[in-house]
Amino acid sequence: MTLSGNIANTNTETGLAFDQPALEQLRIVEYNVADPYTNGNEQYRGVLLEDVLTVAGAAEDASTLHMVALDGYSVDVPTDVIRWPVMIAMYQNGETIPTTDKGPLRIVFPYGLYSDIDADVHNPMWVWQLESIEVR
């Protein structure tokens, strides 16, 4: 996964690249959430989006995170979603998430843990196969 755009810290010509070992060095969180795409509760483990943005040195005045998946799907996510512990998940139910099953990285909103998250608004922001985030 690569972060680019309005960030202060880079390790490539185009931005800040994270592989799984680099992500594993960050604070790991785990919780069970109601997954709208499996219609059940799933246990996810990964890192907080907020922590990744902090490591990247994302600009405090950034308003949008342009997220792109391996299949080209993209969505603009407002930066204020970090008021919740939105996760970049690396594990689902104790297993790494294969690319063939919407992995290896997936955005997960903590549904069921916070009553003010609107599924109608946030379901499209559950980016599977997350490849890049451009901070705007």
Verbal overview:
The protein has helices at 20-24, 49-56, 119-122, and strands at residues 2-5, 16-17, 28-35, 40-48, 64-69, 74-78, 87-92, 95-96, 106-108, 130-135. It is mainly beta and 136 residues long. It has one domain (2-135): Oxidoreductase, molybdopterin-binding domain (Sulfite Oxidase, Chain A, domain 2), CATH 3.90.420. The radius of gyration is 14 Å and the shape is globular. The protein starts with a strand and ends with a strand. The model has no long low-confidence stretch (mean pLDDT 96).
Question: What is the tally of helical segments?
Answer: 3
Residue share in helices? 10-25%
Instruction: Count the E strands.
Output: 10
What's the CATH C level? Alpha Beta
Number of domains: 1
> Structural class given helices, strands, pairing?
mainly beta
Rg result: 14 Å
Shape: globular
Quote the average pLDDT.
96
Uncertain ranges: none
Helix and strand run = EEHEEHEEEEEHE
CATH superfamily: Oxidoreductase, molybdopterin-binding domain
Summary keywords:
136 residues; mainly beta; Sulfite Oxidase, Chain A, domain 2; five-stranded antiparallel beta sheet
